[in-house]
Design brief:
With about 210 residues, the chain is of the alpha/beta class. It is about 30% helix and about 20% strand. Helix 1 (about 15-20) runs parallel beside helix 7, helix 2 (about 40-50) packs parallel to helix 3 (about 65-75) and helix 6 packs parallel to helix 7 (about 190-209). The longest helix is centred in the C-terminal third of the chain and has 18 residues, at about 190-209. The radius of gyration is 16 Å and the shape is globular. The mean pLDDT is about 95.
């Protein structure tokens, strides 16, 4: 078992390089203009060109207009899409690209029902409810995540090196996603925190093996 790792909210070439050097499987670019981690389509291309083969770029959108998504895809055509707003299944699947649907784990949310609703999704991301649509640095009740699932689960929301090992041992997610947990400030990543986070994930994998 190897838990995949996504470092999200990258805004600088140095941070992309640090994430890749540390062994991240995917890097996330926020295409949501209200976020402090927002990256405009013209900037996406220069950041994504630093990715080596087999490191997946992920473009995060929140209730975005189709032209913004298309512009971002033109800049990074091999990207995985991540929808983090109120998008329904047809809005997510219309681009013919693999996508991940983020689910805000409000008390009334049933993750298994979301799997049925977003049948075309490559994976579901369980994240903490946040008015900022992610990057809040807060966790949610992991006990609400079913252990038997039909789709790959990406666990987000308050992930950091101190708690990610426990999350992996309890939930066995396909992947974990971290943003604020490896930052010095919003959008400014710390290479040492990235390394500590990835080391904690690998240690949890080895313990389970």
């Amino acid at each position: 078992m190897r838990t995949r790792i996504k470092i999200c909210g990258l805004t600088r070439e140095a941070d992309v390089a640090a994430a890749v050097a540390a062994g991240a499987d995917a890097v996330g670019f926020v295409c949501y203009p209200k976020s402090p981690r927002y990256i405009a389509p013209l900037r996406l291309r220069s950041l994504a060109r630093h990715l080596p083969p087999f490191a997946t770029p992920v473009l995060l959108f929140v209730n975005a207009a189709a032209d913004l998504i298309e512009d971002a895809l033109a800049a990074v055509p091999d990207a995985l899409l991540q929808f983090h707003g109120d998008e329904h299944e047809p809005a997510c699947s219309r681009y013919g690209r693999p996508y991940m649907r983020a689910i805000r784990m409000d008390p009334e949310v049933d993750l298994l029902d979301c799997e049925r609703q977003f049948h075309s999704a490559t994976a579901l991301m369980a994240d903490s409810p946040s008015e900022a649509f992610g990057g809040s640095g807060t966790t949610f009740d992991w006990g609400r995540v079913p252990l038997r699932r039909t789709k790959p689960l990406v666990l987000a929301g308050g992930m950091r090196s101190e708690n990610v090992g426990d999350a992996i041992r309890r939930l066995r997610p396909y992947a974990v996603d971290v943003s604020s947990g490896v930052e010095d400030s919003p959008g400014i990543k710390s290479a040492s925190r990235i390394n500590q986070f990835i080391a904690a994930v690998r240690a949890a994998d080895e313990a389970l093996a």
